[in-house]
Amino acid sequence: MSENTATRTRQSTRGRILDACRGLFNERGPADVTTAQIATTVGINEGNLYYHFKRKEQILEALFGEFEQELRKVAAGGSDPERYGDYLSGWFRLMWEWRFFYRDGGLIYRLAPSLRSRLQILSDYGQDQVRRVLEGQSRAGFIQATPEEIEQLIVNAWIVATYWIDYLRSRHGVAQITREHVNWGALQVMSLFRPYLTPAGMAMLGIKPERSAPLL
Amino acid sequence: MSENTATRTRQSTRGRILDACRGLFNERGPADVTTAQIATTVGINEGNLYYHFKRKEQILEALFGEFEQELRKVAAGGSDPERYGDYLSGWFRLMWEWRFFYRDGGLIYRLAPSLRSRLQILSDYGQDQVRRVLEGQSRAGFIQATPEEIEQLIVNAWIVATYWIDYLRSRHGVAQITREHVNWGALQVMSLFRPYLTPAGMAMLGIKPERSAPLL
Questions:
Q1: Domain that holds residue A129
Q2: Chain A residues closer than 8 Å to B208 by CB
Q3: Shortest distance, CA A25 to any CA of chain B (angstroms)
Q4: ipTM computed for the complex
Q5: Average of per-residue pLDDT values in chain B
Q6: Which tens digits make up the pLDDT trace of B130-153?
């Protein structure tokens, strides 16, 4: 698999089907995409599509495999505290490029039940990596948080990062997620970490300390 | 309507149906409760149930009306900064006593579509009230946060308070929410506010300042 699954153009029919499906699923949601639409987008006939994937479930499983690889790559990349900005934008690029997995979770795991346990394993891995990154940042003096605060932070960040799309939909009727929405989601998640940044951590991220000294 | 909808025992058949449904829905979810089970729990026959409510949708709408009243009562109660502990526990009592609304959101709004816009209005009201409380706490010197931080805090708290149940289910396979889970959810939400508390705010809430002085 090449360096960047999400943006490369692939030559194999199977690869082109998966690229097309990721695009269509992001745009319309997996439930509203027909095999005819997939075949048309790829420029093949439905028989050929059927040769590669018998059911939508199999497409979702194959796409999840790619998402999994991308997430593992991003999650493992936070070991250098100096490159935390890149690390964060990696998470949000992931969220944008695979937004149907974040947005349509409930539905997807009904269509492809085998993904439930894979999501579990992937989430364990992701949270472990975030914990390692935060512990590293704490050792490096970039954040100051107790182990308990780090655990609460990991869970809250996970919840906000997972559900902000559903929040925008149910609270504000946002049907189509744009890049601006993703930036908004990123800021919401980052705001969780901000109170724990030390002056050195702020300097490292290029944030000016706006907050005045404590009142009391 | 009496002072405490959630715990009173009501005399009218209609009231007893609603109490029974709230209990059954909390326990099993609205989709998995049959009219026969409702009738048995109330001790009436199904014809009598049908006389009061023709469809499950109507039961959900009536229960939402009670939830609405309770939420408005809790949300309006945070004007006294000294009683913030009571205010918080009010929100979490609400969450426990009406947990099916938090847990089964997607399903409920499919069963009773009219509740979508009512939820919108109720959420607007709730968030406005939380904003007023935080602004009051800020003026009183109990928290220190910029207006932008307050907005981000309100949204993050709303997301965590809405989705922590789904998080426990999808991440940890928790099918049945207990009081311990609600306490855990409450701590997750409270941890969002904690970094913004001033020493006076901590003293007011009876929290010992555990965090040592900034490293740098």
A1: 56-205
A2: none
A3: 20
A4: 0.82
A5: 87
A6: 999 899 989 999 999 999 999 999
